[in-house]
Fold:
Amino acid sequence: MSAARERVLVAMSGGVDSSVAAALLLEQGHEVIGVTLKMRPDEFTTADSVIQAREAAKRLEIEHLVVDQRREFEQVLRYSWDEYARGRTPNPCVVCNPRVKFAALFGVAKTQGATKIATGHYARIIADENATPRLWRGVDRQKDQSYFLFALDGAQLAATIFPLGELTKPQVRDMARRLGLPNAERAESQDACFVEKGEVFAEMLRRHFGAAERPGAIVDATGNEVGRHEGVHHFTIGQRRGLGVALGRPAWVKAIDADAARIVLTADENELLSRGLVADGVVWHGPIGDEPVHCEIQVRYRHQPVTAVLEHREAGQARVRFTRPIKAVTPGQAAVFYGGDRVLGGGIIERALEE
Structure:
């Protein structure tokens, strides 16, 4: 970030992370404006993050704006439901960040004369040898959120600041307490844009869009029916709990056939293993070249990355082979490629390559 004073628009969700991000920018001498994007449909929440953000902004003595993005956010909800209805498991944050959240922030920044935007994500932007900004993991690997940000383009990265990228969560909490922020002890709010604690996102989406329930059969590996379900959106690949059947032994979801409304179980956990995947909608951060690329791949947010080889790339697609099998590779989730801590690129898992 430039040492010169800049006007920076900070996304404030009402949580401690975004509030501390704003405070850090103030300490660095910037002029800070807070903005809260109202995105959730009213029926999706009872908590008012706007109030929390406004109180934090008041404590920091900065201007605070509220911008209604519910209409734009509807496209993310629609995408998510369409994926669930297809028997896939979407990652809505990956879609929302570049298309809605950051796009909205840059739009507001322009009207406010801000030269940069900032968020409370735990990630870093580091310039390469050509002074091109690249996305890196946050220092706190337990909180690193670069996985959700892989689809940001170069222009977005160039005008973005992640003030928490070099900090750990305990350090952020300590700073919030020192500043007397009203949300210093506020609990974590993972997926706060989408659902309240205790709710089931997929079922809320079904009701939101008025989609009909599609009950069907739960079958074992030989095709024998062992139970019934109320809709494929209740299931994800690798799921073990909440299956609604009692087989007398552990079982996992091996496959989801949305067309037939059928859930296939397996009692052999090894049948969940895959040797690779095909990803679509792939974006790259910098040149990759035509030769196979050794990297690390992460196929879920909390997934421990494994080494892999990018075998084949073409426009918007990549084929990847893991150096060891991965369990429960799930269509709809993001696959993000890393070279050390730097994000090389990422895409949406289209299908797993069987063992």
In short: The first helix runs from residue 16 to 27.
